[in-house]
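Can you give me the bound-state structure? Components:
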Amino acid sequence: MTEQIFAVELRDISIRFGKVTANDSASLRVEKGEIHALVGENGAGKSTLMKILYGMYSPDSGMMKVNGAEAHFSGPRDAIASGIGMVHQHFMLVPPLTVAENVVLGQEPVKGCCAFDSGRARELVAQISRQYGFELDPAAKVETLSVGEQQRLEILKVLFRGAEILILDEPTAVLTPQETTSFFAILRKLKAQGKTVIIITHKLREVMAVSDTVTVMRRGKTVGTVRTAATNEAGLAQMMVGRPVVFQVERRLKTEREIAASPVVLSLEGICAKSDRWLDALCGISFEIRAGEIFGVAGVEGNGQSELIEIITGLRRPQSGRLTLSGQLMDFEENSPARMSKLGVGHVPEDRHRRGLVLDYSVRDNMVLGRQRESQFCSALSRNAEAVAAFGDRMIEDFDIYPADGELAARALSGGNQQKIVVARELSRRPKLLVASQPTRGVDVGAIEFIHRKIIEARDAGAAVLLLSAELSEIMSLSDMIGVIYHGALAGVFPAGSVNEDKIGLLMAGGKLP
Amino acid sequence: MSLDGIFSLALLSQTVRISVPYVLAALGATISETGGVVNIALEGLILTGAFCAVLGSHYSGNPWVGVMAAMTGGIFVSLIHAVVCIRFRANQIISGLAINILAAGATKFFLKLIFHSSSNSSRVAGLPHWSFFGLDRAPVIGAIVSDSLILAAALLVFASYCLIYKTPFGLRLRAVGEHPECAETLGVSVYFMRCAGVMLCGVLAALAGAWLAFDQHQFSADMSGGRGYIALTAMIFGKWNPLWAALAAALFGLAEAFQIQLQTVGVSVPTQFIQMIPYVLTVVLLAGVIGKSRAPAADGKPYPGEE
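Here's the bound-state model for the whole set.
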């Protein structure tokens, strides 16, 4: 019996970066002409493994075979020569250059002794663009292209170099649902032309929709390969996380008497505010949140959510209205984030890179941001490094942050683990009011479940929670009360269980309930 | 007081003479920064070029040997900048400043050692003049159109433009200056391209120094006199495009020539104010134009950057 020849075969690949083992004896087999999905949580080592295959890193140990022949790449140039092409998660395009120039870069057609033949470059690019139905204008500047077009350009670049094996790193992360659909059509077209496609993703729905085979990675190891047809989302999620994943975190609904007995923590009355561009962002927002209650605000982004959060956390002054926190009427003239924080408002911001973390600080230092003056973390003149370290390391353990290294810069962690730092910091202060905006954006399934569980725990411990999310399912599964925001006003407020997704979706889009 | 004397062929010829080092250095900086390496070492490169030119000319008696020596010196000094900034990813501004200080000190040291003077070298012969169609005998501008380095500078303006915008080398250089990671993934060596850009800059800036030295037939201490910084300004004003940078350099040359002419004619304005003209122009242009001028995206950023 002859051994089957695989397009790609990786055996026992290991690589370390400093103290972090990114790939730990990972193995992968990809058949010719299939769409192979490589899934795993953020930081599981998917991208690293593919960068090794593309020659960008050389592994510490392990063996690589491409089309049956053993391969040693010392750089992307070697991988390209072996018919491998990679589309990176962050687009590798030069914005001021044209489509054609971006495609031929590194393999430019030449006329005469040394002049760049831009006419020929455009012809070549137009030809491939037609062949695959990409509809790209070779003379257009890349900075004028839409995200979907840039993605097609990236694939075109790879095809121009004669790639038979295409690696796509999180290709749909930046696409709209419509663009994703047409992107999948392109993948199927590539497959029909005999190309092998490896797609990295953590969106299980997409894996089910487009792939033939799936390999799952967890913490640097490949944990298994299955036929897509023989599995489902729940099965894949379990392989990714290493335990069954609960998509709906359990929580106990409170009785009316319990609710009535708990004190009101936050009360807003007739809040009106302008946006940064001095347009009306909020008009007449009124609601209250009681202790031990999660108030979920559903809505399409840009309907006033950001301004609402900024007012509650002291970052923005409203034009009119009253804000009462634990019975104390707030004076907006004197309000500041430091004051609100002191009064027990915790804030998980919508953009963790902008407001949640100092990316170049260590994980430990990020854990005490805003609390560095508390007596437990500093003495009269200096900070207490040991206390900070001990606290940080305990949080890392409690919140299962990976890699478990408090001295690492926050920048080095995956999105899900960065988000856990923010959530850990805010919850460790035991806030009376937790404002959580998009708490699980760009976070993988395991971490989503974990963060949801922590939010529920805070609620059960008596915190009032204001939850804003673009994910309707998140609002539905966590909230005790659900409000819908549309054009800066609440289009409705409902107790959980008295309303379904269809009704909320209708209100989010500006419709009226019959 | 007669103003007719100011706008004359003399003004034109003076403008060209003053502009040449600005143009050459600005071209060099443009090439270096197109590849993503900020090169404020221009000042030091000009000094090095001037000193090496005099040295080569002094020992061989042949000014062309001086030109070769200047270019070699320029390459050698930019090699320091390249190794420090590209290989060891150090801060490019600091490396540039260090080279400027080093060059100022080293040229003075060797001046003392070789020419036994702390101010200037002995006199050397200038470059020979060329004659095309007898143009060199034309009044005033004859000296311009027959000067080999002036002609070379004019040619280099267009050569630099073609190099950056019309060759595969230029395409790669621009890619490396805009998005080095992208270039690297396509198999273009960021190290090689950036080094090449810095070396070319070294050659061009050293030529600017050589021109200064041959124009004055000697080397004098600190003779670069801030020209490197003016050239950098011209590059920014010229939006990192060789043609515009050269034009901007010429504009600064014009302002300086104008100031000299005003002084010769004897306008009843304090000379200090007249001398300010080029610098005021620099400040005004920078303040007014810099907002619209966009540097290469990865200009000044070491590669690979932080993970």
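A couple of observations. The mean pLDDT of chain A is 89. The longest strand of chain A covers residues 20-30.
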